Amino acid sequence: MTINTRKRLESDLDELKRMIFLMGRMAGSALENAVTALKDRNIEAARRVLESDDLIDELEEKIDNCCMEFAARYQPLGEDLRAVTSLMHIAVDLERIGDYGGNIAKVAIEIAHREPAKPLVDIPRMVDQVVKMLKTALTALDTRSPELALSVFPMDDRVDDLEKDIARELFEILMENPERIEQSFQLMNVSRTLERAGDHATNVAERVAYMYTGKTTRASLHRRKREE
């Protein structure tokens, strides 16, 4: 590979990363804005989240096409091949996170005119943690730090704990107020959606660690051990 070709390859790879960083910011904002709309019962804000989903989908498609063109042009090997395949997978995970923001926005619209079943406290905490995980994973990508990527994995334990706390509290509300059944289950679905978003943020971190080490990393090895 000539020096000029190498420079073009690295420039194209940097451009792919810039698109990934943009997509990551958009996906994280979709989650945050959807939960804020849910908490504030703001239908217009929720609709804006839904409108942004198409932009995230378009960017994911663009990244996929650019990765395919990159592979065809340079026929990469080693770390370059790991990079382009990892970025393709990361884009898929980010697209799913963006979709989850849209799903939460739909719930926000559906229940905006109803009396809240409970004050939203833990759901905003969940989204804060998921977005923190996502930002950490993308910073690890930017700084070429697999060690930082590994730090994402134990953060997901906190997301799981919050999801369980929310489910427990909502079931208690159901026992006392059966008429709140529909809204309670909708909020449970929101917490489960955020838990899945945390899983996708974990996937991003796994891909980053693999990208820079060449070794497959399992998040379960770096998380709290499950009780038997």
In words, what does this structure look like?
The radius of gyration is 19 Å and the shape is elongated. It contains 7 helices and no strands. Helix 4 packs antiparallel against helix 6 (155-176) and helix 6 packs antiparallel against helix 7. The chain has helices spanning 3-40, 43-74, 78-111, 122-143, 146-150, 155-176, 181-213. The protein has 228 residues and is mainly α. 82% of the residues lie in helices and 0% in strands.
Secondary-structure element pattern, one letter each: HHHHHHH
Helix content: over 70%
* Count of individual helical segments: 7
Stretches with pLDDT under 50, minimum 5 residues: none
How many strands in all? Answer: 0
What structural class do the secondary elements suggest? Answer: mainly alpha
Biggest pleated sheet: none
Mean pLDDT over the residues: 93
> For the CA atoms, what is the radius of gyration?
19 Å
End-to-end Cα distance: 53 Å
Shape: elongated
Percent strand: under 5%
What is this structure's SSE topology?
Blueprint: H1 3-40, H2 43-74, H3 78-111, H4 122-143, H5 146-150, H6 155-176, H7 181-213
Helix pairs in contact: 1-2, 1-3, 1-4, 2-3, 3-7, 4-6, 4-7, 6-7
Compact description:
With 228 residues, the chain is mostly helical.
Question: Which terms would index this structure?
Answer:
7 helices; mainly alpha; single chain; 228 residues
